[in-house]
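Worked example (supplementary).
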Amino acid sequence: MKKAAMLLAMAVAALFGARAAAAQEKVTPSWTVATVSGQGQPKGYVEYQKYCVVCHGEGVGRPGTLALQAKYKGALPALLDRRTDLTPALIKMYVRNGITVMPTFRKTEISDAELDAIAAYLTRNNKP
Amino acid sequence: MRVPPGVTPNDFSDAIKQWEEAVGKDWVFTSDEDVDLYRDSYSPFWHEDLEPIPSAAVAPDTVEQVQAVVKIANEHKIPLWTISTGKNLGYGGSAPLLGGSVVLDLKRMDRVLEVNDKNHYALVEPGVSYFDLYRYIQDRGLKVWIDVPDPGWGSLIGNALDRGGGYTPLRDHFDAHCGMEVVLANGEIIRTGMGALPGSKTWQQYRYGFGPYVDGIFSQSNFGVVTKMGFWLLPEPEAFKSGNVLVQRHDDLVPLIETLNYLMNSNIVQGTTTIGSPLLMSRAAAQTAGGSGGSALVMSPGGPTIEQLEQVGRDQNLAYWNCELNFYGPPKVVEAEWEFAKEKYSVIPDVKFVDGPTYALPYDPKDVDKLPKRQFGIPSLTIFGLMGRSEGHMWFSPIIPMTGEAVFEAQKVFGQAYHDMGVPAISQLFVFPSSFFPRSFVILCGFPIYHDVEKNRRSREVFKGLVKAAAEHGWGEYRTHTAFMDTVSDVYSYNDHALRHFHETIKDAVDPNGILSPGRCGVWPKHVRKARA
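After joint prediction of all chains, the assembly is encoded as:
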């Protein structure tokens, strides 16, 4: 009986383990979700997912990532959230002025407070 | 501080104070730094005095606030320019046509008011983008699909009012709307269709209501500010299938499109179909044309002949034309529809078919990046990666008949027009004809924008030249950048501009002070017309 229960427990664990592994491989992209959870995430993570990753994230057809890949050719990461050399002033300049086909974003689209959060997120790993 | 035309600084300050009381100080923008955010990011007037720059922006959050803002503007005779998400890039972005106008920015009104997946409709505010509505539906697991244009950050209302198009069976966005709420220039609210009946249960289900149907006059116009709009949605299909039809000879385009008409007008093929050309897009054809990729898209005088191109096709085993057909519905039905299409096309000698994938639906949201997004109503910004390096673009977009003969004529006419203007056609992005709207083709020709006065000036001249060349052959634009609204309006001139006179009659009646979006699509208020005469 005990052995059977143990086997069952092992089978359940294996099943859940397999599910957990599968879940790690496949994730619902954050840009498809209206309410991104910021739990356990650094400041600005939610705003970055909401406004930026659709162009600057990972995956197929992200023009911002493609443009930065073409620009830096691997010398710097094409993904903005992997960079450690950006400054808040530079980030704000691009969001409010645009660059090539990236347009300006108005304060009704991204507020100053949200932009501060995005800037904090993208500079979180900068060395002091 | 910039001041709107015809308004004294005192009056303007007074209006700004009143707007601040109506919407809150944070949502009235007057500093150059804030107002500059409303300039057209893709302006064809960069570094030129001609660029129309707004004087201020006001961003209400509710329909009552819209009423208050409009009333104040009406009292002070201040021109407002209404935007929804302000991302109509290529057609003017968030900037007004008349410099000094105050932008009425509706982005904060971003509520999804209802999505019904039993009767398949949505009711939204102007600030709701395609991303917003898609996310709302995904979060709730609702069984409906939206239809998206290429850029997903646009407003459903703004795009439909500018009569934009997409890719699924409900791709004609204005046609897919059902019911509007509109604030008039005097601040009064009307609801159209069944919405005029207090307590109506069918505002988003029956379009017409009773009496004259007026929704059309609020599209591409300046007769009111639309604050709510209903849209019909597609029930989530059980399957999607695509298949490619390839024909070998130049003249095969005629039966290719004739059958396409039959299939589309019979609702067998339902989504947008684009005519393509493996041959004309090939490096081999470009070399024959003496240019880079796509040089052969228009027939330039002195360029390669059809016979030469057909020979390249035979040598390289490249079809002259192809089209991808999309089918939505139950699995058995989409397979049968593709079989039927193949049967109809089999009369064209040497036709080839390439089966595309069949998708069983619903799809797993985790796979979203692997799907053909546009055909599945999934918003994205992918298009911006395909435009090449520039500072933006604008679109020349004439409607032509859905026939092979018309496509041939367009290739020649635009090839000749480019030649006459001394411009290599390949300097523009010439896209093949697409069925964004039922029963006709639209050709899209993208003009890159640069921060270079001379290049942009030349582009504007070429653009106007193409509008003229198109009109001489009976073709007109379906939509245009603010910079060309008068140019395009001018060619819709039947019976001495009788239609424009009718638009002006409506304008003068519903907006006598001419405060709403002056100049939009060629409709100017009386005082401007008088000053120009």
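Two points are worth noting when inspecting this output. The two ends of chain A are 61 Å apart (CA to CA). Chain A touches chain B at residues 26-29, 31-35, 54-55, 59-63, 66-67, 96, 98, 100-109 (CB under 8 Å).
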